[in-house]
Every structure is written in structure tokens, then in C-alpha cells.
Amino acid sequence: MSLTGEITRADALLSALEDFHARACESAPVGKLLARWDRLVEVRALSEPRRSFFLRSQGGRMLAPAPSAEGTPDIVIAADESVLAGVFRGELNPARAHLEGELQAFGSQKDQLVLDAIVLLIWGY
Amino acid sequence: MSAQPRQSVTILTAISVGLALASSCFPLLATTVGKLGAWSLAAIAGCGALAWLVSRAYAELAGAWPTAAGVRVYAGQAFGARTGLSLALLYLFLVVALGASETWILSSVLARVASSAWCELALGSLTPAPASAVPPLAVGLGFIVVCALANVLGLEPAGRFQAVLTFVMVAGLLSLSFLFTGGGESTVTRASMGGLDALAVGLPGAMFLFVGFEWVVSAVEEVDESGRSLPRAMSFSLLTLTAVYAALAFALLVAVAPADLTTGITQHLTLGASRGGRVGLLAMAAISAVATITSFNGGILGASRLVYALAREGVLPRPLARLHGRFLTPWVAVLAVSALTALSSITLATTQAVRVPILIGAAIECLVYAVVLLALRRLRETQPDRARPYRAPFGGRASLALALVFFGLALGCVFAAGEWALPTAAWLAAAIVAASAYSAFALRKRTSARRAPARIVRPLVASAPPTPTLPPKAGGGSLAGATHG
């Protein structure tokens, strides 16, 4: 894979996360959910180039995605980059991807439910 | 870097034991002892070994596909989405059926304790009163309501508390079994060792004792990613369960008359009362209550999460995917599963056929085990390069042979129902046909929905022109409605 190709793919995931972050910040119902949910989420790409981005919810707001974060993540969402980008862009149903074995989620089931609800609120499915 | 919190092997072992060791196990264990006599010990050991072999298959598959959806994903990957969904729906049927029998047995236990207390006060005897002072159906329904409420409010017992509760129950059962084996002045004629016919009937019952140990794989997303914790936890769990059942079976064998072993559903209380008097009866009743709480509550919790996930996937009605705005729990799914269990309890109260749902549950589990073993074999062939942190010490023909054994045990469950064999077979067949037909319907509907025009993403910027052709998707699109209870 060329360097250019890798950069393009990296941008695709990051831009999906940034768009997701912007939508989460503008949504009042999501803000209501986040008010009781201070967590660190790691979004881990399993396909090459392997890397992670971190989303943190703090004080009722979601912070911008970052390539590193302090502390141990409460949830790890792991999948191929195309799946992750699809989920955060609202093109893939995360529940379906999870049940079909394409998306892995590590963390407490309650935290997974909340994260899933945020995706549902933003994308509608 | 990995997610927190992590469940330790000890807690996973406790979850597995707690899910398998239910009040329904006690009458089935007593019946097995009544039919097989001393052979029941061999049956327990044999079924424990079979369960361990299945646990290796689960461990390999859970390592390769670490998802709470478990068998839904394994079977789906191996044999297609329809098989996976059918098995998930059968699991739901199993939870509802076993939930009903579990609450019914617990309510019978409480009724017997209450009536024994009444008799002791009035007559100075531990013989149960002829008419129960506690209506079992009301107690059963009350228990379901309490569990549903706790699940809606998100009151999940902490892992460590649940582990302590389970280990106290195990220690209590082992201690009482040894105490009852050695204690008591009277001796009874021991149940005779049954022949091959009895073995055919008794084995499925013994297999049921281990049902549910594998539900701990739904916690795979909360354990370490090395894939080592689950296999070890399931081994410890099966070892613990085998020891507990063997000890209790021996106590039942030496302390309870054969006629009492195969009658009723509170034989464990008979054992406690005959050897330990009022204290023995109360101790066994307390253990029974803990057994029901750990297994039933875990069942409702797991089933409601599965219903939620299936609704999110689009194969069950969408309202089932609602989360409570305040408690962040899938409250509609919890209430739906609880309502079905209550309905099942009412049916059970009218028919009194408590062994039917238990044996249907055992048959479904044996079928699921068989499919998991076949999935192990098929996935090794079709996806050999998939990372497997743990590998089962068998595969290929051994998987196939084991699967056949479990298909045979599923059939045995039907015959073990005796006079209820026909209704058991009918319910089991109806459940399989309904699950398969609904799966086909739901997946076809989902595929049709996929073919619908592509969804247009709402513009994020407020000043961007609205898309007139974009009605929010049902229940979504707009940012309201998904979590409000």
C-alpha cells in the first residue's frame, strides 16, 4: 500500500469520527445521555495501518477524537477500518455488524448499550 | 491497551456456576437418583465430561469471535444467518420456559416452608399442611415482577457480590450434603441401580444439570483479550458443578426413600427436613432461593440484552430496542421477556407439568450444543486462518461424533418426559418450526429494506438546505425518541 493510500484511509476514519463528534455535540438528547456517562472509548482499526483513536465523554460533552489519551479505555471498539468508518458515518448498523462478527466491542455491556444508543440517536439506526 | 473493567477467572467461574445451578436442578437430580440409583453418580460424571468437551468448543469459538451474541454469531458464520437467528430465538424460548419452571419451583419451595412452619406451630410436625398457605402462582408472578423491576432500574448485583453469593451457595450445598450423608438416625432403602432403560431416561436429566454453564460466554467482551480466562473459568465451573451434584446425589441416595425421590418438585427440602429438621429445611430453601436468583435473574438479563440486540439489528420489532432515558436499560425488552415468562408461569400453574419446560429446555440446549460442535468443525474448514487464541483439543470427526451424541440426548429428553412425551415433542417441534420460519421472514424483510433507496445523510450544518425527500427513518433520523422510556 502506498503512503498516499494509507494517508487517505487514515483521513477517512478520522473524518468519520470528527463528523460523528460534531453531530454528538449538536444533539441535545445525546448531551442528556452523556451527562451521566464519563467514559473513554478507544476506536481501534484492525486492518493495516493498525491504529487507534480515542473519544472521551466528559461533563456532558464529547471531546474531539484524538490519537492518544490518558487512562485505560472503558470500551474498545475494534474492527476493520472500513467497518469503523461505516459505523461512525451512519452507513452501517453497528448492531448488525456486531452480530455478524465484523465489529468487536470490549467493555461492560451497559457501556456498550449507551454507546449504541448514541449511535442510534445520531444516525437513526 | 485494553478496556476495563476485566472479569477475573474467579468471577467468571462464579457467573457460570450461578447460571447453571438453578432450583430446577434439584428435582431433576432427585429423579435421576430415583431412576438410576448409584449409577446416577456415573451419569453425573459422564455428563460433566460431555459438558467439558462442549465447553472447549465454546472456548475456541468465543476466542475467535469474541461477542456477547455467542451462538448467534458462531452458527451464523458456519451455516448462515438464518441458522444463527433461529438458534438465538430458540435460546429466548428456552429462557422463557426455564424461567417459568424456575419461578414455579421456587414458589413451591416457599409454599412448603410456609406450610411447614404453620404445621410446626399448630401440630408440632414438619409435615406440610394439606393446603398451601402461600399461593405458588402469586409468589412466582411476584418474583418475576421484582426481577423485571430490578432489571429496568439497572440494579445489577456487582460481580464480586454475585461471586460471593454463588460460592456461599456451593459451600452450603457441599457441607449440607456431607452432613446429611453422615447424619440422621434412620436409614432408607436405597434406590436400586436402574438398567439400560433407566439410563436412557436418566442421562438427559443429568445433562440438564449443566445447562447454562456456557452462558458465561456472553461476558467474553468483559474479559481479557488473550482468550485464556474463559476456557479456564468454564473448566473450574464444570468441576465445581460435578462435585456439588455428585455430593448431593449421594446424600439423596442414602437419605431419601426411592418413592420420595421421584415424586414432587421439592425433594431437596425433603432431604433437608429428614436429616436436619427445621434448620435443614430452611437451609435448603435458602439455597434454593439463591440458586433461583442467580440463574433466573441472569437469564432475564441476558435474554433482554439479546432481544435488544436483535431489535437493533432489525429482526425483532423496533420498539424492543428502546433504552430507558434515565436508567439506560433496555426496558421494553426486559418487560417483554418478563411478560412472556409470566404467561408461561400461568400456563404451568394450570397444567402442573413442571418437567415439560425443563426437558424442552434440556432438549434445546442439547441441540444448541450439537450445532456449536458442528460449527467448530465447519469453521475450522472454512476460516482456518482466523485467529484462535484457544484451540479445542479435538475437531473433525470427534466434533461430528459428539454432535451426534447431543442429538441423541435431545431425543432422550423427549422420551424422559414419560406421560408428557407427546406434549414435550409437540412444543419442541413447534418452537423449532416457529424459530426457523420467523428467521426466514425477518431476514427476508431485512433484505428488502436494504434494497430500499439509499438513505440520505442529514446535513450537519444548520444553514445547509434541508433535504425534502428525507423523512427521518422510523424511530430515528431525528435525534429524539431512541432512549426515552
Q: What name does CATH use for the topology of chain A?
A: Nonspecific Lipid-transfer Protein, Chain A
Query: Total domains of chain A, how many?
Result: 1
Average pLDDT confidence of chain A is 83
Report the order of strands and helices of chain A: HHEEEEHHEH
Strands side by side in the biggest sheet of chain A: 3-2-1-4-5
The largest sheet of chain A, given as strand count, sense and whether it forms a barrel, is: 5 strands, mixed
Number of strands of chain A: 5
Distance between the termini of chain B: 35 Å
| Category by helix and strand content of chain A | alpha+beta
Query: What is the end-to-end distance of chain A?
Result: 33 Å
Q: How many β-strand stretches of chain B?
A: 0
- Report the biggest beta sheet of chain B as strand number plus sense, adding barrel if it closes: none
Note down, in words, how this protein is organized.
- The complex is a heterodimer of chains A (125) and B (485).
- Chain A has helices at 3-26, 28-34, 81-88, 94-99, 109-123; strands spanning 39-45, 51-58, 61-62, 75-79, 103-106.
- Chain A is an alpha+beta fold.
- Chain A is globular.
- With 485 residues, chain B is mostly helical.
- Chain B has a single domain, classed as Amino acid/polyamine transporter I, CATH 1.20.1740.10.
- Chain B is 69% helix and 0% strand.
- At the A-B interface, helix 1, helix 2, helix 4, strand 5 and helix 5 of A face helix 4 and helix 11 of B.
Quick overview:
Chain A is α+β, with helices and mostly antiparallel strands and 125 residues long. Chain A contains five helices and five strands; from the N terminus they run ααββββααβα.
Q: Descriptors for this entry?
A:
heterodimer; A: 125 residues; alpha+beta; Nonspecific Lipid-transfer Protein, Chain A; five-stranded mixed sheet; 5 helices; 5 strands; disordered N terminus; B: 485 residues; mainly alpha; Amino acid/polyamine transporter I; globular; disordered C terminus
